[in-house]
Design a protein that fits this description.
Blueprint lengths: L3 H14 L2 H15 L3 H14 L13
């Protein structure tokens, strides 16, 4: 059996590129294999797409 990280990478790529009805099927399979709760599985599979977004740099100094 593959490690969870490898499983997430493989299934996550399929999940992010799939249409909505196909995502449901992929998610069902992933939950059955991994044992994750459904909502956690959604967050895990979407993780790479969310990490790609950049955040604004924190503001420094005192604004007067």
């Amino acid at each position: 059996m593959t490690t969870r990280k490898e499983l997430i990478e493989g299934v996550g790529a399929r999940y992010r590129g799939a249409a909505l009805n196909e995502r449901t099927k992929i998610l069902d399979e992933f939950v059955a294999i991994s044992g994750y709760h459904r909502k956690h599985a959604i967050r895990v599979l979407r993780a790479e797409a969310e990490q790609a977004r950049s955040r604004a740099a924190p503001r420094t100094g005192n604004a007067v």
